[in-house]
Amino acid sequence: MSNITIKTDKEIIDRILNKAVEQILPSKEALEKKLYSGERLNIYQGFDPTAPTLHVGHTVTMRKLEDFRKLGHNVIFLIGDFTARIGDPSDKTDARDSARKILTKEEIDNNLKEYTNQASSIIDIKNKGNPVQVMYNSTWLEPLNFADIIKLASEFTVQQLLKRSMFQKRIEENKPIFLNEFLYPMMQGYDSVMMDIDVELGGNDQLFNMLSGRDMVKTHLNKEKIVVTGKLLTTAQGDKMGKSEGNMIELSNNAQEMYGRVMAFTDNQIVDGFELLTSATMDEVSEIKKRLTSDENPMTLKKELAFRLTSELKSQEEANSAQEYFETVFQKKSTDTELTKVSLSNEQYPITDLMVELKLAPSKSQARRLVEQGAVKIDDTKIGDWNMGISLTHPINLKVGKKLLRVNYQPRT
Question: Model pTM?
């Protein structure tokens, strides 16, 4: 599409460079220079279909893909249907989970069915002016023979791969590192070579793999690939929220589920939620931060976040309906007589401690099992993270099995 005019819109470029960005390598200035040069760049992000749905964490950098598309650049939405079979190593502490399960081709094909439709809530993939390319890395990875793989592997050293933090952690904990996991960074790096990539986007947890691709682009194409990592949405304890952790808002969730899961956020996730998950400008984010540190009720801001995210990913009509449902079923339900009401003197609790405190579980280990079994809900949103911190700055409905309590914070007098 040589007739496409490359735009140098300052507002969009500033947003690409500054909003929800963790790192830009080799530098922000290098990317800024490229964006103002008028050169049409090849931009991509890869999505491994290891689960049947994308989640809101993916939308952080998907919004940047859409910004690059608006500027006229060639955007590639890469589905890692081959790399999903290898499995990018996770950093879970549980030995049985640290190495990902190897998926079959059938499982992967089933998982990826809705990916482009879900991504279309953020990226205008099929627009006529500058459509996004949807590609699959099995196209070039599957035909590689053993000799090809050995040749590519010769570009890496064991010492280089062992620098990856999660491998270091495994070694310290005497846990296995499988050879297929060693090969993953090489395969992801080769994607950049085959697509002639100028800029790769991804979460900050993908930095090692993205830098591997940067090295391979330099070796094979003799040019510099720029790496942009987005900030990760984390729990109150600073742990990643994502598909591997089972605690993320999925794009397949309906509007009521999406709205309700945002309402389960802790207060310290509100500002990040606006910056990372919505189209809010950085000026708006700064204003949200000011309001949060004032006397304004955090519940008001959380409802604004829930409404905005739901309306942007679904529709305003569905967001209105979801908000009405939440207010009717949960906020107004606080006066219903069938709810047992409990007041606690602490404002923050880990979910397992809260369950034990309220005698909804006999021990923390049993509380953890109940969370893992999907038996725990807050305001009708299932809790998937047993490390989750619970804020009682506003009353919550806590349901464990069939037991339902209305819990709030009551300061000591």
Answer: 0.78
